[in-house]
Design a protein that fits this description.
Strand content: 15-25%
Number of domains: 1
Strand order of the largest sheet: 1-2-3-5-4
Structural class: alpha+beta
Distance between the termini: 21 Å
Bound molecules: adenosine monophosphate, zinc ion
Number of strands: 5
Helix content: 10-25%
Number of helices: 2
Order of helices and strands: HEEEHEE
CATH architecture: 2-Layer Sandwich
CATH topology: HIT family, subunit A
Amino acid sequence: MYSASRSKKGCIFCRIISGEVQSDILYQDEQVIAIRDINPQAPTHILILPKAHIPSPAEAEEPLLGHMALVAAELAKREGISPKGYRLVINSGAEAGQEVPHLHLHLLGGRPLKEMG
Ligand code: AMP
Ligand code: ZN
């Protein structure tokens, strides 16, 4: 539950970044890591997350957010979903359904996606 903790302690994504928890890592650099979502909502469902524990976009630096989006676009190319289209989503806060309080960008594609709402 999003409201349970905004701290790094016990954060599942921080545990993945530290190597404590295994994950399917597709890409990483100094700032971000990209993993396959454990419960994919589309044939391609990748999460791009900062290596630093940043709870929400409001707490992130502008270059980091831009970098996350460009990494997502590059991964969409690599996955072969760019020509048909893909979706980038950041859930922020309880009403958006954010489950993990560590900023992450969802990259979804590989099938027609329904309207948002
Ligand atoms: P959100 O609802 O935006 O906070 O999304 C959290 C996402 O993290 C969900 O799509 C989960 O399936 C995904 N997730 C949770 N735990 C893991 C994990 N250990 N490895 C990969 N993805 C995960
Ligand atoms: Zn974290």
